[in-house]
Write a structure and sequence with these properties.
Blueprint lengths: L1 H18 L2 H12 L12 H13 L1 H7 L8 H6 L12 H11 L8 E10 L5 E3 L4 E3 L1 E4 L2 E6 L2 E9 L5 E9 L5 H17 L3 E7 L3 H10 L8 E4 L2 E7 L1 H14 L1 E4 L2 E3 L1 H11 L12 H4 L9 H7 L2 H12 L8 H16 L19 H16 L1 E4 L2 E2 L5 H22 L13 H13 L8 H16 L12 H7 L2 H6 L46 H6 L2 H19 L8 H8 L2 H4 L20 H4 L4 H7 L17 H11 L1
Parallel strand pairs: 1-8, 8-10
Antiparallel strand pairs: 1-6, 2-3, 4-5, 6-7, 9-10, 11-12, 11-13, 13-14
Helix pairs in contact: 3-4, 7-8, 9-12, 9-16, 13-14, 14-15, 15-16, 17-18, 22-27
Amino acid sequence: MIKRQEDVKADFDKILTEHLTEAFANFIRFQISIADKSPKGVRYGNDFKQFALTLHLLGPSAYKYMSKIIHLPSTSTLHRITRNWQFNAGFNDFVFAAIKLRVDTLEERNRECVICLDEMSLKSHLFYNVSADEIIGFQDIRNRRKAEIADHALVVMVRGLIYNWKQPLEYFFSHSSVDANELKEIIFESIERLHNIGLNVRLVVSDMGSNFYKLVFKDLKLTEASPYFCVNGKKVHYMFDVPHLLKSTRNNFFSYLFLFRNNEINKKYLEEFYAKDKIKQYRLAPRLTDMHLYPSNFQKMKVKLASQVFSNSVTVGLNTYISFNELPQSATFTAHFIEDMDKLFDVLNSSRFKDCKPLQAAFIGNSAQVTVLQKMKSFFEEVKIFKGEKDITKRMKFLHGWGLTIAAFSELWKDMQSSNIPYLFTRYLNQDCLENYFGKVRNASGNARNPTPIQFARSFKKLFAVQYFHHVEGANCLDDLSSILTNINAESLRKVEFMFQPATFQPIAVKCTDYRLNPLMGIKKSPSYRDYWSVNEDLQDPYISKFMPVKHITFQTNLYAEQVYQLTNKRYSQTNLTEVKTFIGLNLLMGIKKSPSYRDYWSVNEDLQDPYISKFMPVNRFFAGSLHFKIHARQSVQLVVEPYTLERQFSNAI
């Protein structure tokens, strides 16, 4: 009987080998081997995980259906693969290789995309990553680290132009906002990398921060006549974020007087209308409130409030009050301005094929949509803005922003028509995806308004993985089982091998250390954390924090220096807490640059030097104030007694 079973297995194996591909045959063998096991008791190898992941990328709905028929790893198991993914600030080849797997499933037209850039504020913080032997929290832009504490993160995200897919690409830590020159390098390299993996970048979108404004008009030298630049011979248009422009227009409308063809556009008419309308039982503009007309700094950031000011209901209300002589006829032009801004926002914020407001439907280039764009382009070119009697039109950045944005969109639409794209959802051309992404980062960081760099880095990794497994609408999903199995082969498995490489940890090289601070090792940790090297527990070396209170080091340095002066008449000067903290701070551990003469400094280890610190504490001064440490090759005085003995001798002397 046993022999018969073995014969059957051999015959079956022979049939698999002769009639099926090797990959499919191995798949059948594996399914037979785990048929009697509990789903939780199955251990999947990397080869099968590669198969499962490729299957999931080709069709999530098919994967879910097949998991009911055959044994497949759960989606959570596939997510756990991401624990070995290693993300660093800057460009990661791994990220683009992973995205390429998704791109390969997209139809050609769905590879048209937009790059979005935006910055968020961070809480300055340094974190020592033991596994990578790296301090996270310094400025890190394009793999160029500087000894400056990061307080901003720049994120680059790619999103679909036709279908609503999106994926974060990379992030950069910076001290203040990223410089315009560096922004240019980041944008060009991002576009080139996306071209290399099969995506076609049509547009770049950003807000109107001073660095982005300088990038567009000074570095890229874009104009309304030429609102694009070229990368590898391909045109890439540049637009400013429409919601940001809308808020900027509202803020300037509330602050200054607009004059268009000698007609006044003034907030006072809106205030007069609101004062009369809000006391009515049945209001013409029921959504209008005090926060709309008198927003706080925080409320000014909300696009919703700006869009409700520039709305059809407010326009109707103003015109109604004018027709009943409740408002002067001069308020007509203010009503027209609000109406035109409402129409412009509708055209540039569409997200559906049909809408109750015709202008808010998908952009198809009809006469009504084009007329709005042309009319508002002329308005922003001709309008004059006054602060009192002073003409400040040339200072108004939002006017140039609107002009470039409308021109860039018009050029983009012409290019899309030549590529047989019949429509555009203009809401895909703004930064909403990044604003939502930053909200998720804050939530993942414990609802921190300003997360630390390490919190941001961990959130980026987590959110990249979550977004990566989302189904992309418009992908080439292979829904039938036989088609999927046929398309899985050795080549497709090799494409995802990089995802299963175990995390590599290099041993930290530790050089021979000269422990010359041993006399201080009997000191207990102070109860006040402010007395220490760093106020953040994450930055403490327990060996140092236990034995090196800054106040004690400062006191001992000055005490012994004065004692040496009494013994040798060697001149010295008092040091202070700031100098000591600067000198022995974390910057010493970074090893940014090698000192010209490392023997002149506190440590004899050449990797611990930082010229930034040396400026604050010249060698001679520190040498004079720290002879008791016995660490300098130049030292001429040899103290033969222990520090506490010296301290007692000095105390007795005075």
